[in-house]
Specification:
This protein has about 140 residues and is an alpha/beta fold. About 30% of the residues lie in helices and about 25% in strands. The protein contains four helices and seven strands. It is globular. It starts with a strand and ends with a helix. The structure holds zinc ion. The site of zinc ion has 8 residues, from loops.
Length: about 140
């Protein structure tokens, strides 16, 4: 079985075999590793690309630079992303820069982490969590 994933480096859609784990997986376009999965710095159009094309859950952290709990959670979010290569795709969106998107998704308090699957939001949490809690939450949707 093959799945579509979005390259975090060049945003090209790649079709790859679905596996339990991957030794190596490189983008057909930019040749960068699809396993290097630091959260993508997103915006409205990048989020739309991922939600429309990725067959993995898309995990989106809405945050802002002035928000203490957001900054506290940031390394945990990154750690969870790196721990789950090609299980889910992680993105961070600065809610101050993307206020229209924030209001579209009814972001009332941050950090807010949303999971999109099959083109729509299926769940969210608000408030800082640690990497173990984030991973456990994401695994429900993998
Ligand atoms: Zn690429």
């Amino acid at each position: 079985m093959n799945i579509n994933v979005v390259c975090p480096h060049c945003l090209k859609v790649n079709r790859i075999p679905k596996k339990e784990s991957y030794a190596k997986a490189n983008c057909g376009e930019c040749k960068e590793s699809l396993l290097e999965c630091k959260p993508v710095v997103g915006n409205a159009s990048i989020l739309a690309t991922f939600v429309a094309n990725s067959q993995l859950p898309v995990i989106v952290d809405f945050w802002a630079p002035w928000c203490g709990p957001c900054l506290q959670m940031a390394p945990h979010f990154e750690k969870a992303a790196i721990a789950m290569p090609l299980k889910a795709q992680f993105m961070k969106i600065n809610n101050d820069d993307e206020q229209t998107l924030g209001s579209t998704h009814q972001i009332a308090s941050i950090p807010a982490v949303l999971v999109f699957k099959d083109g729509k939001e299926v769940d969210r949490f608000t408030g800082a969590r640690n990497s173990e809690q984030i991973e456990a939450w994401v695994k429900q949707y993998v």
